[in-house]
Amino acid sequence: QVQVVESGGGLVQPGGSLRLSCAASGILVRFATMRWYRQTPGKERELVATITMAGTTNYADSVKGRFTISRDNSKNTMTLQMNNLKPEDTAVYYCRVQTTANNYWGQGTQVTVSS
């Protein structure tokens, strides 16, 4: 059974940092493209960052220069380092693990940026 679990969310002041983690079990992430999404109430889920099997990264314009996505295939994990956080980054952040045949989502972790 495949499980995808996010962690690392919390409350942080504007300008602060958080590091989100996504841990997968039952699947080898080295064979997957991995992405972070975020969602706020009443809005569609937004793609934040992508990292391919080859390690190529891509970011939404709103987070470029502030967020860094990375992966550790040996630990079957992915991380999102978020710096210089802004109130508009407040959302539930989701991890998506995508292989050629399947798609897996975590339950999400809440990030709140507020003074």
Compose a concise summary of this entry.
The chain is an all-beta fold and 115 residues long. It has strands spanning 3-7, 10-12, 18-25, 33-39, 46-51, 57-59, 67-72, 77-82, 91-98, 103-105, 109-113.
Shape: globular
Given as residue ranges, the uncertain stretches (5+ residues, pLDDT < 50) are none
Helix vs. strand class = mainly beta
Distance between the termini: 40 Å
The biggest beta sheet, please? 7 strands, mixed
How many beta-strand segments? 11
What is the typical, i.e. mean, pLDDT?
A: 97
Record keyword descriptors for this entry:
mainly beta, 115 residues, single chain, four-stranded antiparallel beta sheet
Describe this structure in words.
The protein has 115 residues and is an all-beta fold. 0% of the residues lie in helices and 52% in strands. It contains no helices and eleven strands. It has strands at 3-7, 10-12, 18-25, 33-39, 46-51, 57-59, 67-72, 77-82, 91-98, 103-105, 109-113. Strands 2, 4, 5, 6, 9, 10 and 11 form a seven-stranded mixed beta sheet that branches. A four-stranded antiparallel beta sheet has the order 1-3-8-7, with no helix packed on it. It is globular. The model has no long low-confidence stretch (mean pLDDT 97).
